[in-house]
Amino acid sequence: MIHCIIVDDEEHAIEVIQHYLKPVSAIHILATFTHPIDALSFLSRNPVDLIFLDIHMPEISGIEFIQSIQHQDIQVILTTAYKEFATNGFDLNVVDYLVKPIPLPRFLQAINKAQNLINSKNNNGSMIDRHQDDYFMVKTEAKGKMLKINIAEIDFVEGMKNYVAFHHNGIRTLALLTMKDVEDRLPKTQFIRVQKSFIVALNKITSIDGNRIILKGVSAEILIGETYRKDFLDMMKQKLLL
């Protein structure tokens, strides 16, 4: 799954991209932003594979936005009404440059390029070896030992200095990973980071009491970190039955 955000100061432009992406099951929209500063704040807390980015925005331009995230491994598709900025965009190594109004065939061509780039990078390997979407293998603290972790069995992941602890199926497994390694690999539709040291499985949440998250079959109560609170509550509101 490729996770993306859309950044454009025009709501209509965002709606067009959302409409085009609806039938594309391989790409999941994490969030949309009309203010690029809000998008930069989101990127500092959440892993993203792809950004659809407008160039002309009131706070900072799309070019300045790209320059500020060049240290991150994120693919960018620029969208704008101004053809003359294409050279600047490609100088910054963007995936593609789409001129508004964006024709659907041209849009699909761009996302196909992005998918090929992202999937090629992901297939080069990582500390987590994902053979299938329902499990992965991790290197444990025991030298030379690897262990299978079933994603459906994970209750939460806990950061512990040089390790992370997978709490799954009633046991705890220590792995030689960072929280970012894990956050980048777990499905964003199934897991969310709620504080610096905790990622929880959404389907294991039984209740939210103020700042506490209670998980099914887990005695530990996990607190929501202030930095992650808004993103967590926004996701929970999507599940709220009114």
Describe the fold and architecture.
The protein is an alpha/beta fold and 242 residues long. The chain has 7 helices and 16 strands. 29% of the residues lie in helices and 33% in strands. The two termini are 29 Å apart. The chain has helices at 11-21, 36-43, 62-68, 86-91, 104-122, 179-185, 226-238; strands spanning 2-7, 27-33, 50-54, 75-80, 96-99, 129-132, 135-139, 146-150, 154-160, 163-168, 171-175, 191-195, 198-201, 205-209, 212-215, 221-223. The protein folds into 2 domains: 2-122, Rossmann fold (3-Layer(aba) Sandwich), CATH 3.40.50.2300; 129-238, OB fold (Dihydrolipoamide Acetyltransferase, E2P) (Beta Barrel). The strands form 4 sheets. A 5-stranded parallel sheet has the order 2-1-3-4-5. Mean pLDDT is 84; it is low at 124-132. It is globular and about 55 Å long.
Tell me which CATH architecture of the largest domain applies here: 3-Layer(aba) Sandwich
Structural class of the helices, strands and pairings? alpha/beta
What share of the residues lie within helices? 25-40%
Largest sheet: 5 strands, parallel
Q: Which sequence of SSEs, written as H and E, runs from N to C?
A: EHEHEHEHEHEEEEEEHEEEEEH
How much of the sequence lies in strands comes to 25-35%
Mean pLDDT: 84
The count of domains is 2
Radius of gyration: 19 Å
Distance between the termini: 29 Å
Under CATH, the topology of the largest domain can be stated as: Rossmann fold
| CATH homologous superfamily (4th level) name of the largest domain | Response regulator
Shape: globular
Order of strands, main sheet, comes to 2-1-3-4-5
